[in-house]
Specification:
The protein is mainly alpha-helical. Helices cover 29% and strands 5% of the residues. A hairpin with a 2-residue loop joins strand 7 and strand 8. Keywords: Heme, Iron, Metal-binding, Oxidoreductase, Peroxidase.
Length: 691
């Protein structure tokens, strides 16, 4: 699917900003040249006029300014948070690093591996080395990434979906709702270009060629795309430096999707009793609480329709995502109830924070030790010290490592996994039987989550995720997301792959050739130099689209590479993903495997946390799920058969009875501000109070 699983399902809609960043009309000045590239047989004059004047009675609409963000009084990256010593991480990610307290904080900039690539070195989207426009994003999409249905032979749709959970947890572009169509419009819902968009600093619409295989039949001219908000827009930059995009959620893998990235959001989700989160009960089953302003989050016809609230605004985007939100929400409440029974003297606050701390640890364990090896390779993960074979603590925290999410990761490499998305969702019973004729069409349920409360669909869709194959990790993308994304009952929707390409350019990512060099591949001087990792057929397609090897977008080139053995990606994206997940763990002072005595789990507790699995999560939090395979991301097979939930290891919460909340002073050295990372302690080393 932005929103990039695999995953970002990152959506092309942004809030308006107050000031123009530059004269956007310069982007449309070469539009004739762009169309002449698409239609070389036509002159620019003859191709541009039919494009915009194809309908004489075109009704121009004014761009909406609803929900424009108010200027920030301060800029997140420039703030110095008031940090207090705490056993628990903050909601917004601040104060994780004692020396750089704004690192990883919500409302701060994405990091970059390579300098930005803007046409004007400030913020104008890139062009080719010759100065001509880059190939049309929609043409790139249907030329290189068409719909060919090839299913993965090993991994389930759940693997894809968990990737979306992870990418949402680590970033959400400021200026995009990433949940549904936003009020800001550059094109109408019917694909008509809004005249005023030509001079708007926000609009960067995806133009539709006259011979488009799908949209031209509906006489569409463009698809909406609004640029991401940057530090320039927020007044956090001088205007003489390249613009940097912001994320409104914390950069850490900290379940901000469940708890929110601010104190206010967290407070709104708490029940205020027993450390639990708020739920809505329907037919004796607990669901997520209802959103207070449904039309802002869901595509619904009336306020009576179901629309959920959670820590992340994108919770309603697709049924599978909503279900995983619910599973984690229920997991929190399940653990909170147990801890309250074990420790009746604890306050609501203590129960909540200890439960949150444990639930985040479960999330990190599943994400790294169960999910990550599938995508970036088990051996690679151990070689790069992302995973460890130890029964003890892992003290690899490095206060000099900035854990902020990489722009290249969130807005290029991770989006490659959109290819894993399936356009039909199977409803599967307890014996893993399903009828394909009643499978749900994905585009019918974007931002319309009510289907999960119908009949026993919740369990059927949950089982379906762990049973149905994901689509293969390749260059083929399901048409449900390339022609019908967020269609909301209309005949056609958006093209997620074109959005991926456009977002790559919007964020000024360096070229594919530059990142090849970063990943220690030889930089291509001629097209055939791509042949070390890209097939001749795809090189020929690139030649037809781009003027030079120097022009190829990172999102495009990285998606065409042959996979590294044991992984689901090629070498360039693998290097970016590996770097990101290394930073995410070593730059997180609260990482669950730490031995820091101020915040560490005991060895016995850590041993229990390492039993966590996605299958156990489903067993504990489904309504009537009694059978699962041990490895839920892997398809059912002779080596991974269905088994009763009683046979799947679970965490013994008795070890959380009367937790020592104030351990003695740390015997560990103060993390260096300069120099090498910490040495991994032997697994037999015990903290003094555990000896």
């Amino acid at each position: 699917m932005t929103f990039s699983l695999i995953y970002d399902f990152l959506i092309p809609d942004a809030l308006e900003v107050e000031e123009s960043r530059y004269d956007y009309s310069s982007l449309f000045a070469p539009v004739n040249s762009l169309l002449s590239l698409i239609y070389p047989q036509s002159s620019p004059q003859s191709s541009y006029e039919p494009y915009l004047q194809s309908q004489r009675n075109l009704v121009y609409e004014q761009p909406s300014t609803q929900d424009a963000p108010k200027p920030l009084a301060n800029c997140g990256q420039n703030l110095v948070p008031n940090c207090q010593a705490s056993r628990y991480r903050s909601y917004d990610g601040s104060c994780n690093n004692k020396h750089y307290p704004s690192w990883g904080m919500a409302n701060t900039k994405y990091s970059r591996l390579l300098p930005a690539n803007y046409a004007d070195n400030i913020h104008e989207p890139p062009v080719s080395k010759s100065g001509n426009p880059l190939p049309n994003a929609r043409v790139v999409s249907y030329t290189l990434f068409p719909d060919i249905d090839i299913q993965d032979q090993k991994w389930t749709l759940l693997a894809m979906q968990w990737g979306q959970i992870m990418t949402h947890d680590m970033g959400m572009i400021d200026g995009t709702t990433q949940s549904k169509a936003h009020a800001t419009q550059c094109c109408t819902n019917e694909g008509r270009l809004i005249r005023q968009a030509l001079s708007s600093p926000l609009c960067y619409p995806i133009l539709i060629p006259l011979n488009d295989p799908v949209y031209s039949k509906d006489r569409q001219q463009c698809r909406n795309f609004v640029r991401s908000t940057t530090d320039l827009d927020r007044g956090c930059s001088s205007g003489y430096q390249p613009a940097e995009q912001l994320t409104v959620v914390s950069h850490f893998l900290d379940l901000s999707i469940i708890y929110g990235s601010s104190n206010n959001i967290a407070a709104s989700l708490r029940a205020g009793v027993g450390g639990r989160l708020v739920v809505n009960v329907n037919k004796n089953r607990e669901y997520l609480p209802h959103a207070t302003n449904k039309s802002n989050s869901c595509d619904i016809s009336n306020e009576a329709e179901i629309c959920y609230a959670s820590g992340d605004a994108r919770v309603n985007q697709n049924p599978q995502l909503t279900i995983l939100h619910l599973m984690l929400h229920r997991e929190h409440n399940r653990i909170a109830k147990e801890l309250a029974l074990l420790n009746p003297h604890w306050s609501d606050e203590t129960i909540f924070q200890e439960t949150r701390r444990l639930t985040i640890a479960i999330h990190q364990q599943i994400s790294y030790y169960e999910w990550l090896p599938i995508f970036i390779g088990k051996q690679n993960s151990y070689n790069r010290r992302i995973l460890y074979s130890t029964q003890g603590w892992v003290n690899d925290y490095d206060a000099t490592v900035n854990p902020s999410t990489l722009n290249e990761h969130s807005n290029a490499a991770f989006r490659y996994f959109h290819s894993l998305i399936a356009g039909r969702l199977l409803l599967v019973d307890e014996h893993r039987f399903s009828y394909t004729y009643n499978a749900l069409r994905l585009s019918d349920h974007f931002n319309r989550p009510a289907v999960i409360e119908e009949d026993d669909n919740l369990d059927k869709l949950t089982r379906g995720m762990a049973f149905q194959p994901q689509e293969a990790s390749d260059q083929w993308f399901d048409s449900e997301i390339t022609n019908y994304l967020f269609r909301n009952g209309r005949k056609l929707g958006d093209d997620l792959r074109a959005i991926d390409v456009q977002r790559n350019r919007d964020h000024g990512l360096a070229t594919y050739n530059d990142y090849r060099a970063y990943a220690k591949l030889p930089k291509a001087n001629k097209w055939s130099d791509f042949g070390d990792v890209i097939s001749p057929e795809n090189i020929q397609r690139l030649v037809q689209l781009y003027e030079s090897p120097e022009d190829v977008d990172l999102t495009v080139g990285g998606s065409l590479e042959r996979h590294v053995d044991g992984t689901l990606v090629g070498p360039t994206f693998l290097d970016i993903l590996t770097e990101q997940f290394w930073r995410t763990r070593v730059g997180d002072r609260f990482w669950y495997e730490t031995g820091d005595p101020d915040i560490a789990f005991t060895i016995e507790q850590l041993t229990e946390i390492r039993k966590a699995s996605i299958s156990r999560l489903f067993c504990d939090n489904g309504d009537e799920i009694h059978l699962m395979q041990l490895r839920g991301f892997e398809q059912v097979s002779q080596t991974n058969p269905l088994t009763r939930c009683d046979n799947i290891p679970s965490i013994n919460l008795n070890l959380w009875k009367d937790i020592q909340t104030s351990p003695p002073t740390s015997p560990l050295p103060t993390p260096p501000i300069q120099g090498q990372t910490w040495t991994i302690l032997p697994s037999t080393w015990l903290l003094p109070w555990r000896q």
